[in-house]
Amino acid sequence: GESKKLATASILCRDPDVLVFDEPTLGQDAKEINFFLGLIKNELERGKTIIIVTHNIEFTVEHVPRTILMSGGQIIADGPTQSIFTNEFLISKSSLIMPQIYLFKKELRKIGITIPKEVIRESEIINFLDKYLENKSTI
């Protein structure tokens, strides 16, 4: 964790317009990932372009608004993260596995709870389920 911070700090000293991070969450604990998220937020507020190369779908779904999905060195999708990671066909064309949150929503559908397609972040699903259960208890 500390060596990644040092490498990042040495790059930030040069104040580049574009920052590229390769697998930034790999081997990082929650505290280190939160530090990284704070750093990204700060750099975005400063008008920087951030490119994150990762296989961590859960991180991408939670924190990245736009995704470029690649397979075999070719771009197979480019668009809003929620559109890409709710498309089973696109995910099957890549070597990735559907996000856990998508699979969870699929299981909920089996028991009659349908969460809107655009709701893909954990916090959004928790809010939806809270409202769903609240409405259910008032019936």
Automatic annotation (TrEMBL):
A single MF term (Gene Ontology): ATPase-coupled transmembrane transporter activity
Any one cellular-component term (Gene Ontology): ATP-binding cassette (ABC) transporter complex
Keywords, alphabetical: ATP-binding, Nucleotide-binding, Transport
Coiled coil: none
Keyword set includes Iron: no
Name under which the protein is recorded: ATPase AAA-type core domain-containing protein
